């Protein structure tokens, strides 16, 4: 398998991307070919300095960089020699099987949706966030901010996408799907939640367990927790701030709360597009880059995009 | 001032209500007359047993109780001798100046809106939750779950109601109002947030500081944090679960996290109705009851309902 990594994305790139590669390569069973896309005048000396070398490592020169505040569509169009544009070109043409970047999120989403394209039958791609469960398990919340306003049919699809993701990447067997809501009973909630509940209840592709509340996010009631991207983004950032709070109070080394640190998960795949695309946190450090490569490996190995395509092809008009 | 307390509301009533009275009366400067509304065959022996006695204490017999799962409107109509129905009757006729209950929330809301009635000019009453700020301050989130689906004009009014509440009850001078959103810049967010931002920006009755994100809820960017009741309820319950998490991890005695415990705040007033109505958590213990009485005192003293009436009368059609 071939994995493309944007060396120029993230606040601490390319140094932390280089260190992430080093960390990744220090592990065992590293058979993936890694394509490091970035400015070689910057990246090459760093790779040498940190003695990151492997026959599986290939440097792809990209002299341009899309900055954080650039307009995504405009930048992708004008900077065709940027690391993100080259990454998507390689992904679209099959030179790599997955593309990872901690760079301009908007550009990554535009690239994913317009260059890689949405899987037929999927209304809208989605992104997720990982929630550490108190009992040691892992949950995902979906949508984590890509789709602020959602329709019930989209939430219904997120449940299918999230179940496949949880099953294939986190090895959760028959993942429990919960609808994030303000009460347990059917009929509770805002208009969106009220209209989504019956769809999830009837959906035979998922294991729906009903509504879950804000207090259930960290317990084991549900593995895949569904909401619109507005709610999901508030939850994601609030959960990140819980880590900041325990750190400020001196409990940063607590085994459980350590798991709240974004670096443990690295980034989120864009689910619902034809190939694995992983978007990292802007403040990604080495561990985050290493973990994003691991997620890409799992996505390729499990062919989660192929499974999504197969599952959604049933819904297509004849 | 005269404060009515439903002795029968809450999972641990009437015992914890009695203990709450005891706690309250043990403080200094207790001049309020307290009307204890409940089944006197149950309440009187408990008051005697716990030696809760004061010339300011008056027992009002209410032989019926509205249970947790009863239909609010139906129960209020059929059980006119229940503690909640009698409480609202006393409040509506001026025998008491504030009414507190940890009983059936729906019945409390129906009572507040139909017996006490919404202040002219207020589109919808609202409830809030208290958020402990890391720097020691106190913030409020509004709406905390009363209005799942909101219009921009409602959120704009919540900002005014919340500012008055924060100023009069938490003594926050010129409270900073933030719109809970998925990004800092104007134009971010779902349709509701996008439409609400310009209203808040133009609102001269509040000190609007812009958008705040999920990570800002515990910092000091804003004192009054505005969102729809769906989002607010998720945040409220998630914040409550943070207390559960730190307790599970053994940090329950941490000075900051202790403040996450609902008992410190007791309950939430229904803001936007003509008289002080305070709804308690179903699991209220003594401290919560005591604190609800204190909030009622402050609401009466500061005449926050009168101030709301004055402020909203400007908006009324001529």
Question: Could you characterize what this model shows?
Answer:
By secondary structure, the first copy, chain A, is an alpha/beta fold. Chain A is built from eleven helices and eleven strands. A six-stranded mixed β-sheet of chain A has the order 3-2-1-4-11-10, with helices on both faces. A five-stranded mixed β-sheet of chain A has the order 5-6-9-7-8, sandwiched between helices. In chain A, α2 links the parallel β2 (33-38) and β3. The model of chain A has no long low-confidence stretch (mean pLDDT 94).
Tell me the CATH topology of the largest domain in chain A.
Isopropylmalate Dehydrogenase
User: How are the strands of the biggest sheet of chain A laid out side by side?
Assistant: 3-2-1-4-11-10
Number of helices of chain A: 11
Written as H for each helix and E for each strand, in order along the chain, the element string of chain A is EHEHEHHEHEEHEHEEHHEEHH
What kind of oligomer do you see? homodimer
What is the CA–CA distance across the termini of chain A? 34 Å
How many DSSP-defined strands of chain A? 11
CATH hierarchy: architecture of the largest domain in chain A = 3-Layer(aba) Sandwich
Strand fraction of chain A equals 15-25%
Category by helix and strand content of chain A: alpha/beta
Assign the CATH class of the largest domain in chain A.
Alpha Beta
Give the uncertain stretches of chain A in residue-range form.
none
Mean pLDDT of chain A: 94
How many domains in all of chain A? 2
* Largest interchain contact: A-B, 41 and 41 residues
């Amino acid at each position: 398998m071939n994995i493309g990594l944007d060396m120029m994305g993230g606040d601490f790139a390319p140094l932390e991307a280089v260190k992430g590669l080093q960390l990744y390569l220090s592990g065992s069973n590293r058979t993936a070919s890694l394509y490091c896309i970035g400015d070689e005048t910057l990246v090459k000396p760093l790779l040498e300095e940190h003695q990151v070398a492997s026959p599986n490592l290939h440097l792809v020169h990209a002299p341009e960089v899309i900055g954080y505040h650039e307009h995504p569509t405009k930048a992708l169009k004008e900077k065709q020699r940027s690391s993100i544009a080259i990454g998507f070109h390689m992904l679209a043409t099959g030179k790599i099987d997955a593309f990872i970047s901690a760079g301009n999120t908007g550009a990554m989403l535009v690239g994913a949706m317009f260059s890689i394209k949405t899987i037929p039958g999927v209304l809208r791609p989605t992104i997720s966030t990982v929630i550490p469960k108190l009992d040691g398990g892992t949950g995902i919340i979906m949508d984590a901010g890509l789709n602020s306003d959602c329709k019930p049919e989209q939430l219904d699809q997120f449940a299918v996408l999230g179940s496949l993701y949880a099953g294939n990447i986190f090895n959760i067997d028959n993942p429990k799907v919960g609808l994030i809501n303000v009460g347990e009973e059917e009929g509770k909630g805002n208009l969106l939640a009220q209209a989504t509940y019956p769809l999830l209840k009837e959906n035979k592709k998922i294991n729906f367990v009903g509504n879950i509340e804000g207090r259930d996010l960290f317990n084991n009631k549900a593995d895949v927790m569904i909401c619109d991207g507005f709610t999901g983004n508030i939850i994601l950032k609030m959960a990140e701030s819980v880590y900041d709070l325990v750190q400020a109070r001196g409990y940063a080394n607590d085994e459980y709360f350590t798991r709240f640190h974004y670096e443990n998960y690295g980034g989120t795949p864009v689910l619902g597009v034809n190939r694995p695309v992983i978007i990292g946190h802007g403040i990604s450090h080495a561990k985050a880059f290493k973990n994003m490569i691991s997620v890409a490996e799992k996505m390729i190995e499990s062919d989660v995009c192929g499974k999504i395509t197969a599952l959604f092809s049933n819904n297509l008009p004849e």
